[in-house]
Design a protein that fits this description.
two-stranded antiparallel ribbon
Amino acid sequence: MNLNARLNTRDITDTINRLKWYESHLQYKLEQFVSELAKVGIEVAKANTYVEVDDEYKNMGDAIEFTKSISGVDGVTTCILTATGIPFVKEWQGGSAQVNPLLMSEFGSGWRAIEGHQGTFPNQHVAFMRPWHWVDTSGTKHESYGSEPSRPLFKAVEEMRNQIQTVAAKVFSE
């Protein structure tokens, strides 16, 4: 049987059109997939943006902005997640410093920070003391052991990896 003899121009055109539709639909699904995965990561990161200050956990989510940008070019879909910490000024008697809540959440501070990241404050010289004391501008004395890292970005990437198959199944089955 000669298969070529049974094909006509209309069949070939229909096949080409179906392949073009599939190609455009696949690009749309890939963009939807990376968008859903990024959404999972941002939710996890926001839920883990806290630092320990004076024995209290404070959510720093308002001071950290998470965004995503998705682009698809020539069959390649890219998603860029961005986290930006909005610095704030920590004041005490005798000084002040700009503190980045994203860095403090991700790496911690003081001797409780991840190895090699002690000293969130500039010119830190007491990061390894256990505990250290500081007096705020109202005269209140505080004792600090530093802050354990809550690792928002690390946990976001970890959860995104764990959710790849689940998100793919959901997006590509619709």
